[in-house]
Amino acid sequence: MSAPVAVYEPFRAGLPPLGAYLRALWARRSFIAEFSRSELREQNYGSVFGQLWLVLNPLLLSGVYFLLIYIIGGQSDSTRYGHLTASLFLFYLVSNSLTGGVKSITAGQRLILNTAFPRIMLPISAMVIALFKFVPTLAVFFVMRTFLGLTYSWQMFWAIPVILVALLMGLGMAILISCINVYFRDIASFLPYMTRSLLYLSPILYQASDLSNKLKSFEIANPIFYLLDAWSQVMVYAQSPDLFSLLHSLVWALAIFIIGTYFFLSRERDFAVRL
Amino acid sequence: MISLSASNSQNSTHAAHALAVSVQNVGLTYTTSIDKRPTLKARLKSLGRGKKHTKVINALSEVNFDVHYGTVLGVIGSNGAGKSSLMRVISGIIPPSEGRVEVHGSVSTLLALGVGFNPSMTGRANVYLGGLAAGMSRAEIDQQFEEIVDFSELGDAIDAPMRTYSSGMYARLAFSVAATVQPDILIVDEALSTGDAHFKEKSLNRIKELRTADRALILVSHAMATIEDVCNEVAWLHKGKLIARGNPAEVIKQYREFTNTGKSSAANEDV
């Protein structure tokens, strides 16, 4: 008789064996792909424009916000419009991870009560869905910035590390909030207000340089402020981002990811009895 | 981790009477919230009032038993006896708080809820997602998908969102998935009593087909007649403790005497 295939022993606080966990996660990567695909298909199934809606929705939003800043602020230069659109698109990458992630565990109840698998798959899927929604908007933005007459430069390759940081941030947030929602179910209803505040506190409707230094020093507490600033420098102005902006967002992203993942992994064996 | 992908390669390797599942001194105590839907609001409102938000549940204590290949073990007991908790511990869904569980082989579980974790997706998508989450590969699911749909008798409904399914359709699909993947160890928790008489009989026959020497089956049911008919061993759980284990007729008799239900028709109705 071969050695035991699986041994289940008492719950210990702290992390599960990470090697085995990661292997189990890797073995189920096709779940994440399949789940994201089905979810996207299902979300846009009934609407007139179908998948096109993924592009139309953020485009309409940027149009509405542009109208808003044009009427209120009287600013109408093309750079401003480019900044608004680019920033809004990246903001939606992060906020879609959050809104998709928040209920990923509670909605996966049936699966969690019935199957043993690394639970972190569910919030990861939420981030992947947000990424799938982001990619077409990126293409739209490149078309738009050509029309707006914004210049291109090699410095724009800085967009890659900025996107990676944004993905890490979105993933960390999805993992953290999905776990919190198991214990406090009203977080999901509170979330729209949180993301709305984040939208106004971040340099989207305005530019980071518009803020006074005093106000800016408060923004250190905003995880995505400097991320969006770096993104705008790269995508709109085709410059390399400030080192500070990049580092600030990286530190925040890492902190949220590490804290969220630790919290999640040390709690996930508890989920089946909490749902 | 449970891996169904190992099932094909291992199916033939388990000798009859080899150990399939070993439950050693297992205890399960867990803390859960009292509210069905715990909220931050409720927590803040009761700040400083010393109100309790969580309760500790002793689901299992000192449970010991082995299941060998070739065995069909029936698990009986009243509601809240810990049957489902025990099945979840064996499947690796909830870790035990004491003792040790060894599982020698691939496990397929059909616990009370079955497949269908996202009701707005189609039955097809849910079957694939359930299988992938359990560690099967897409090719393995492709291979068995036709058989699953055939057995479930769902027809075209497999491509309709699962929220449109009746509870019977739900149960039929869940049973079909679990009974088709041909695991080494199949755990069925109260899933035989769903569906109409026709499907009930069909699933019972399927269970009987699955009773081979290189497979272990664990059935949880309140249907004593079914248990007596299908199983060759019965374990009786009461309040988290294993009260008796052995010959089906004897253990069921003890259980009936204990609960005083005798063979009254009402208790025996749901088979």
Describe this structure in words.
- The complex is a heterodimer of chains A (275) and B (271).
- Chain A has 275 residues and is mainly α.
- Helix content of chain A is 71%, strand content 1%.
- Chain B is of the alpha/beta class and 271 residues long.
- Helices cover 35% and strands 25% of the residues of chain B.
- Chain B contains ten helices and nine strands.
- Chain B has helices at residues 7-10, 40-45, 83-90, 123-133, 138-152, 167-180, 197-210, 224-230, 248-259, 265-268; strands at residues 19-33, 54-68, 72-76, 98-103, 107-110, 185-189, 216-220, 233-238, 241-246.
- A six-stranded mixed β-sheet of chain B has the order 5-6-7-3-8-9, with helices on both faces.
- Chain B is globular and about 60 Å long.
- The two termini of chain B are 33 Å apart.
- Classes of the chains: A mainly alpha (275), B alpha/beta (271).
- The interface between A and B is large, with 45 and 63 residues.
Write out key terms for the chains shown.
heterodimer, A: 275 residues, mainly alpha, globular, B: 271 residues, alpha/beta, Rossmann fold, six-stranded mixed β-sheet, three-stranded antiparallel β-sheet, 35% helix, disordered N terminus, disordered C terminus
